[in-house]
Amino acid sequence: MRRNSSLISQDADVFEDTSVSRVQVYVRIRPIVQGDVTSITRKGAVSVEATDLTQVRVADGKKEKIFQFDQVLPPEASNAEVYQVVGKPLVEASMTGLNSILMAYGQTGAGKTHTLMASADGLTTSVVSHIFALIGKDAAHSYAVTCSYLQIYQERVYDLLASEKSGTEVFLREHPKKGVYVENLSEYSVKSPEEIVRLLKSGKRRLAVAETKMNRQSSRLLPAEEVTSLATVSDKNSWGKDQTLFFSFSCDLAGSERVKKTKAAGERLQEAQSINSSLLELGNVIQALAEGTRRHIPYRNSVLTRLLQDGLDGNSKTSLIVCVSPSFRDVNETLCSLKFGLRAMKIHNVAQVNVNEVSRIFKKRK
Ligand code: ADP
Ligand code: MG
Q1: Where does the pLDDT of residue 86 fall: very low under 50, low under 70, confident under 90, or very high at 90 and above?
Q2: How far is residue 243's CA from residue 22's CA, in Å, rounded to a whole number?
Q3: 43 marked among binding-site residues
């Protein structure tokens, strides 16, 4: 396998265009860790194929499959490099007044938390730090940044910055003008990246307490959807829009494979299935948007899709990082995750696509 000396592919200029076109889909392969099943040559089941870093190859020992994405981040890519490829364009989008959404998707253990929430250099922290840096340079305007942190578990929403040590249940409401919002969700006004890091850390502690309380830790194999953070930046003067949103979340892949593997039964099985069905709804929404012809998009069927509605069909830049494991043991989950990513790549917002972007994407695909 050869790779470019730089992780930024030759087509990096595509990312500088902040016009809304389609969901950008990246695949991140985590490094081999203890317990992974590799071949005798110590190679994993998943590798980056083309030198332009857009193809990923999956081998299950019998067959091989090649998938094409916007960019593949190899196991040796650091969080700082992932920020350059995935995070920076989102910051640029935020600064032009677009909402930006960063999603991580994949099976448990594939590297979602490492990617989004690593304390020192996780993408959520890096994105917010860079927003602060840009705001700091703009002496002509004043900005307000607020931060919230919540978890969705079994269709219920928990405020992870509430005063209770294990978070508080909060509820979705719909406002005729504001749209869908979370009532009474804690919103902290923040002045520096350090404050965000501190808040996210305290939220993570509440998450851990909640998991112990609800016995979730022991069912670690069961997937959970987790909206990790939500930052809003507002300034009435410069962006022609009074608020822009940065929303990052991670979502565990759930599938029949996993339920079988965990030998879930009774209550646990029910739990797994309920999480399955809500993720299914995200898949359904993505599918309906991808077809581009359906008038009814089934946003209302789950909390996650209701929260994401504005982001998925509105004036937003959305990026998805599909996190995959290199282990042969995980090949089925890896294939499921990659197929989800391929569907997400088809989401277009036709009305907003400009001609340059189309021709460049077309060139890239040839
Ligand atoms: P997930 O959130 O998808 O369940 P984690 O982010 O918790 O997965 O990752 C599982 C384990 O693998 C953790 O111990 C994490 O530190 C490690 N890991 C994941 N991705 C990387 C990476 N890119 N580099 C080093 N370690 C990683
Ligand atoms: Mg995680």
Answers
A1: very high
A2: 22
A3: no
